Structure formats: C-alpha cells, structure tokens
Amino acid sequence: MNQLDFPILSLMMGLPMLAAIICLFLGAHAARLLALATTLVLFALGVVLWANYDIGGPQWQYVERADLFGNFAWALGIDGISMMLIMLTVFLMPICIGASWESIKERVGEYMAAFLFMEVLMIGVFAAQDIFLFYILFEAGLIPMYLIIGVWGGANRIYASYKFFLYTLLGSVVMLIAMLWMVQDAGTSDIPTLLNYDFAVEAQTWLWLAFFASFAVKMPMWPFHTWLPDAHVQAPTAGSVILAGVLLKMGGYGFLRFSLPMFPEASAQFIWLIFGLSMVAVIYTSLVALVQEDMKKLIAYSSVAHMAIVTVGLFAFNRQGIEGAIIVMLSHGLVSAALFLCVGVIYDRLHTREISRYGGLAINMPKYAVFFLLFTMASIGLPGTSGFVGEFLSLIGLYQVNSWVTLVCTVGIILGAGYMLYLYRRVAFGELMHDDVKAMPDMSIREIALLAPIAAAVMWMGVYPESFMAPIRGDVGALVARIDRATPQGDAHLKMGQVKASPTTHETESSHGESH
Amino acid sequence: MDYGLSLIFTLPEIILTVSGLILLLIAAWGGGKSARLITILAVVALFGASAYALEFLTNPSFEFGGDAFDGLYRMDRFGSFAKLLIYFAAIVSLIVAPRFFKDNGSYSPEYPVLILFATIGMGMMVSAVDMMTLYIGLELNSLSAYVLASFIRNDIRSSEAGLKYFVLGALASGMLLFGISLVYGFAGSTNFTVISETLTGELSTGPLIGVVLVLAGLAFKVSAVPFHMWTPDVYEGAPTPVTAFFASAPKVAAIALTVRVIIDAFGGQTSTWQQIIVFVALASIVLGAVAGIGQQNIKRLLAYSSINNVGFLLIGLAAGTAQGISAMLFYLVIYVVMTLGSFICVMEMRDAEGKPLETLSSLAGLSRTRPGLAAAFAVFMFSLAGIPPLFGFWGKFLVFDAAVAAGMLPLAVIGIAASVIGAFYYIKVVKIIYFDDPSGEIVKTGHKTENALIALLAVAVSPLGYLAIPLLAPVTAAAAQALF
What ipTM did this prediction achieve? Predict the structure, then answer.
C-alpha cells in the first residue's frame, strides 16, 4: 500500500472527524483538551509523514485508493508539494486551538468541532487524488468557515460570512462544469492521469478560465479579493490564522496542481492576465495597506500583495519561479498566521484593532515587541527569514520571463517594507500615550508557546531552506518538464557573451589606458 | 388479452385500491375513533404495494416489463422505481400526520384514505402509456389532493389553499385535455407508441400546439415556471404534513409522468420539447432562487426551494439521454429525502402551547435551545442548496454531468451559476438558526417518532449518503434504461 503499510492519510482525516463529532457533545474544557490533543497527534503524524517521505522516490507516495462511490473514488496520495502544505496545516492547527483557549467562551464544543472539521477538509484537499473528491472537499470548507465567521466573529460578522460564502461559491461552481467536461474527455477522474493528459488547445482556454475563476477568488487575486479583508476582520483570531495560513494556499495549490500542468498552453496564453492582475495587486493593495487604520485589515491587504508574488512566480514557467512561489506560500502561511496571532494578543487585552489606540508597546511589552518585530521583518522579506528566500527565488524566476513585471513587483516589495515598518512603528515604538495600553501585561507563557514555534520555523526556513525545498524539487522538476513546451519567450533575449579575439582585448586595454 | 398477467402487473395499484375501499368502509362505520387504526393499516397497505414494486424492480424475470390492458398501462422498472419513491413519501407523510392534527383536533380517518387514493393515482400516472390512463391517474391524484389541501376545514388558510389549488388545477387539466385532444386528432391515437410513430418530422401548427399544451399542463403539475404560481400559496396554506406530501410524492409522480410522455410519446420531436424544457428548467431555477429571497414564511420558502429544485431536475430531462433520466431519478431520491426532512423539521417548530410556528424569525437562535433540530435543519438547508459534502450536491452533480455529456454546456453553466443565487436564502436560514440571538419561541416537543425520522433523513443526506451511490446508481440506470 505505502511505505508505512497503513493508510496514514485516511487516518489523518478520520481522527479529527471523529474528534469533531465527540466535541459536539462535550463541555467547554473537555472539548478544548480533546481538540488540542487531536491536533497534536495529527502534528506527530505529520512528522511521521515527513520523516518517511522518500525524497527522490516515486512522485506519488502514501497512495491509497478505495472505489467507494461509483463515479469517483476515495483516492489519496501526496507528492512533496502536498506534503509541505499538509505539514503547514497540521503545524498551524494546534496553534489555532491554543489561540482560542481563552478568547472563545461560548459554544466551545461546536467551535472546536468546526476547526477539527476544517482540518479534515484541508488535509483532504491537499491529499485528494481524485478530481471530484478534491472538489467536494474544496467546497465543503465553506460550511465550517461560514459558521466560524458567523457565530464567533466580530460586530459585522453576518455581512462578512455571507460575502465569504457566496463569493467563493460563485467562483468555484463553474469549475465543477469544467471538471465534468474534463473527466468525460479524458475518461478518468484520477488526478495523476489527468496531469499527463493533453487537452485540445482550444478547449484549454475556457477550462483554464473556469479554474481561474475559482482559484483567483480563493487566492485571492485583485480584483476578486474584496471578500478577504471583511472575512479577516470579522473572523475570530484563530479563524483569521487558518484563513490566511492555509485556505488562501488552496488557490495557489490549485494553480499548481490543475491550471499549469493540465492546461500548459492556456496558461501561457493567459500569462498577460496573471501578470497584469498581479502587478496591480502588488502596487494597489500595498498602497491600500499603507492607509489602513485596522491592523487586521492591513495584514489582510498585505496577504493579497504576497499572493500576487506567488502567482507571478508560478506563471514564470521555470524552476526558480515555481519553487520560489511554493516557498512564499509556506512562508506566508507561517508569517501571516503569526501576525494575526500578534494582533490577537493585543486585541485580547484592549479589544480594539485600531492602530492609533496603541503605541509604545516596546516599553511595557518587550517580549511581544521582539516577536512582532521578527514577524514584521519576515513579512518584509529580510534575509535570514523565510520571506526572503521565497520572494528572491520568485523574482529571479520572473526576471527570466519579464523584467518589467519584475521591476513592478520589486517596487511592491519595497512598499511592503513601507507599510509593515509603519505599522510596527505606530504599534510598538513611540511614547506610551494611553493609560489602558500602559496597563497591558506582557505576553503570557501560553502566548509565547504559540508564537515561539512559528518563529523557529520562520528562522529555519530562512537560514536553511533546503529542508523545505528538497521534497518539492523533484515535483517541481516534473511540472517544469510538463509545461516546458508552452514556456513563453522571455523578454530579455539574453545572448551568451562572445569570447572576443585577443587583439580586441589588447585594443580595449590600450584604449583603457589612454583614457587615463 | 391476458387478464391474469394484466392483473399481476397492476398488483401494487390493486392492493392499494382494495385497501383504500375497505378502509373507507371502516372509516364510515368506525368514525373518528378509528383514525389511528386506519392510518396504521394504510401504512401496511403501502408497504405491501412497495413489496410488489420492489419485486418488479429487482426481479430479473421482469426485466423488460410488460403491457397491461391492451397497452393502457405498462409495468416496467422506471415506473416501479418511481412508485417505490412515491410510497416511501406517502408512508412518511402518514406517520407524521396524526400528531400534527391531534393538536388542533381535526384528524380524521379520511386523511389516510385520501392519501391512499392520491397514491393510487400517482401509481397510474407513472405507469401510464396512454393519454387516457395518464389523465385518469392525474385527476385521481389531483382530486384527492384538493381535499387534502383544505383538510383543516375551520382554518381559513387551509380552505383558501384547497380552493386555489382546485381552480388552478382545473385550468391546468383543461389545458392538458385540450392538448391531448389536439395530439389525438393529428396522431389518431392516444397511445404513446402510436403517437411517437405518427408525429415525426416537422410538425404542423396543430400538433405543435397540442404538444405545447400537454407540456404546459404537466409543467403545472411539477410546479415549473411559468406555471408555478399556485405552489407558494398552497404550500403555505395546506397543513404541514400535507405540504410535505405535496412537495414529495406528487412531484415524483408528475416528473416521472413528464419524462415518460416526453421520451415515449414525443420521442421523435426532440427539437420541439427540448427548447421548452430548457427554458422551463432555467426559468424555474432562477425564479425559485430569486423569489425565495424575500420570504418570511418557512413553508413559502420551501415552496420556492422546490420550484428551484424542479428546475435542476428538468436539466436531466433536457439532456434527453438515458444518463440524464438516470440522474433525475437519483436526484429525485435525494430530493424526496431532503424535502420530507425539512418539512418534518418545520412540524417540530412548536411554541409553548403546542401551536405550530411558521415564520423564519421564530427560528432565531434555535441552535441554542434545540441543537439537534438546528443541526438537522442546517444539514437539510445546505443539502438543498447543493453544497458539498452534503448529499444534495450529488443530485446536482449528476444532472450537470448528464447535461455536459449531452453537449449542453451553456445550460449547465447558467444553471450552476444560478444555483449560487439560491444558496443565499438557504444560508440565510442557517444564519437565523445559528447566528441570531435566541427568540426562545420554539420549545422542546419530545416527539420521539418525528425526531427519529428527522435523524434518519438527516443521516441519509449527510456525507454518509455517498456510500449509497454504488447501491443506487445501477438501479436508477436500469430504471432509466427501461424507457429507451
């Protein structure tokens, strides 16, 4: 069956499902403990998954398949990319549970059940090897997230939950029709087979657009991003963490898993669309982030800008770009999750996210200020943190395709440094103006325990990214080989420098000498 | 003509007819006290009829079915499948009825008898291969339904529902009859096979109008736009168990009947009926989705939801293939389960004095006071909206799959995009139940039977339902194949 001789992926989905059902019937404290225990066990299973992953082995590992449903199968299996995203999920989930430990007081059982159900779906989305199973799990995430935002969210939660639900649903329904057509054309719903099936080039165009509608909303790309700031602001802290940390990655994963390898020609054909929207996103959402008064909104807009770096990297059609995009996805998953947690820490104390209500926190909350600074720097992409590795690689890849887009995206990264540093200055530096802020205690042990693992991971990814890139290398190689035939011509037209004949060298030297 | 064989083929109807007549006599002499007994006996009779329908469906020796009474009636897998579904819906509507009517003291033995007669009519409808059988079945069903709608005599809304249903139903029957007579006039027969052999090639105006009028009459019965106007009023006014019955069993019968008429009788006229069905399907989806948004009464909302779902069902018919019909049948199974489930949930909405509540606002914060009922309600709503992983998604999946396979991509894309509009009011119900502050109007009823039924139906449309696919899919495929 697989290298572990038992269906570990099914176990990783079955366990939280079971725990979710039990949580519905438990009291508040028992539900918290059960949810924490389950997510920690899943993290341990994730470590087992990684430890036993055979780098350079077969592309699909831990494969399992049961033909349970007639038209489609319970088919799971992961490659390196899926594994890293599953790791991200199981790593963030215990932190989410911990972040809700004290802030969620009502209907704890249902809350924990929703999160555990969410975890089932997220693992399933990244592990599904059947296109319909993927769709079902991908869409099913709407229900728990709708409830999380709507029941435990902020003041304007109902509007935000409607918008989230309908927006993402509208994005993905047309994708289903495209999937139905693809399966009828190819005669199978098996994703590994579909990955190597060549669809007619004319059909690819609208299939690509149907998938684009779904993933662009999920990602989110400008101008389909408007649901995100609302959803983030209204969701409880842990909801924002999971939304920014994992759910947004589903869009990038979709482009990587479906759009690029299944429709390479169409992807090349629409490269202008991706680049155009991403350029607007990088500049526009960064500028919007600069003027935000609400911390969560600021980070939400910064997510849109970071995701634009992911899309340009993916559609660079080369190894550096795609590997970079994956690392940005992982890094953003960690960093934005940590930033939302940082917001959560002070929100729990003062119950406002308004930036101007804070200031001078470095004085009375030094530990908090250190963590916040680290994640701010990681978000900016300072070398030594995870953000740098991904952005650098993406931009190198992008530069081979289009130097102008690279220029614009780099400017966006500078703007990113601008709004993040501005945010940090307003929150952490300056004088302690307000008495209530002055009274805020520094981080508790629980809060440190939540942020420290993320900080360690961010540094690890920044200093030794090889750990994270080794598992994905083979898969990116396969993807690049697959899309090679459609790779667009770069605009640089680089030529190998000609080795000049020695007399010329002499002449140059002499002319050099003369000018002195 | 072999009467013995004809009688065997019609056994489900014969069982129900004989039991219906006997129960009517018991009711005449036993009076109101016998109501409970008669209900139980009616359920038993329905189980008996189901046993025969199941036998016809699954026994290989009945694989190709057979005609009874000189081609007036056909026993085949398609009809048997539809009958099983109808009997199931009738049984559920009978089980939940006594408790509902007991509280306003108007339960009487005529209720189960009328349900039985309506069921016989529906059995005739789905087995009809002749316009005459079709009409008789339809009228037997409709006349029982008119009385059922106005069953609570002293309730003005119930009486209004019955009257409205009767007047509009008579109009539809008139259209249908006029259509039948035109088709008969040009085809020279009322038999479906003869009609399809005669009406070939380009139709002249006369038979064309006939076909359109027949389809219009049938569209009224399935409550498809633009003949849907009666649905919200009747669903709202009729007693809730009757509404549950209306939304499930007759819908199955009318849709199965429409399928048979279109495939058998007008099979040679694909281009004629296909454009009508495509229009009706899309109009039903869109109107069912848009008009439901403003509703404040849960029964009216579910009425629009059923119009919306009929639109999706008709997409399978528009495809016109065996795959499409099979998808419709599968969708019908899920639809019946979801509809019955949500109406039983509505029946459980009682205030402290046991009075039934119907407004959406009374559902506010139900998840705090009755978490189980709230969860079931949410499951049915998400399922009706077709959000995966709930099983309601699978019905939509299958009809869209059939439409895509038949090359009707624009229909599939518009239909599925419109389903997002419909999702709005379903999630609005969930919002009221889960997000709003409790109104505390709805109290615990402690009705064990109803709660067990709700739990059963909710589990059936939960993701566990997917495990039933390998079981049901071959049956629906075989049933659909019987038509081709």
Answer: 0.93
The four Cα atoms B110, B113, B114, B119 give a dihedral, to 10 degrees, of 170
Q: Which residues in B lie closer than 8 A to residue A174 (C-beta atoms)?
A: 413, 416-417
Distance CA(A198)–CA(A482), nearest Å, equals 10
User: Per the structure block, which two tokens stand in for A323?
Assistant: 């590997």
Q: Is A404:A275 a contact under the CB 8 Å cutoff? A: no
Note whether B469 contacts A169, CB cutoff 8 Å: no
Among A140, A147, A181, the residue with its CB nearest the CB of B434 is: A147
Return residues 131-150 of A near B (CB < 8 Å).
Answer: 132, 135-137, 139-140, 142-143, 146-147, 150
Global confidence as pTM = 0.93
| Chain B residues within an 8 Å CB radius of A177 | 400, 404, 409, 412-413, 416
* Cα of B135 to nearest chain A Cα, Å: 38
How close, in Å, is residue B449 to chain A by CA atoms?
22
Inter-chain residue contact B409 with A169, CB threshold 8 Å: no
pLDDT in tens, chain B (484 residues): 678 888 989 999 999 999 999 999 999 888 878 888 999 999 999 999 999 999 999 888 888 888 888 889 999 999 999 999 999 999 999 999 888 887 767 788 889 999 999 999 999 999 999 999 999 999 999 999 999 999 888 889 899 999 999 999 999 999 999 999 999 999 999 999 999 998 888 888 888 999 999 999 999 999 998 899 999 999 999 999 999 999 999 999 999 999 999 998 888 888 889 999 999 999 999 999 999 998 999 999 999 999 999 999 999 999 989 999 999 999 999 999 999 999 999 998 888 887 888 999 999 888 888 889 999 999 999 999 999 889 999 999 999 999 999 999 999 999 999 999 989 999 999 999 999 888 878 888 778 888 999 999 999 999 999 999 999 999 999 999 998 8
Task: Kindly report the three-state secondary structure assignment for every residue of A225-272.
Answer: CCHHHHHHHHCCHHHHHHHHHHHHHHHHHHHHHHHHHHCHHHHHHCHH
CA closest to A142 among chain B residues: B387
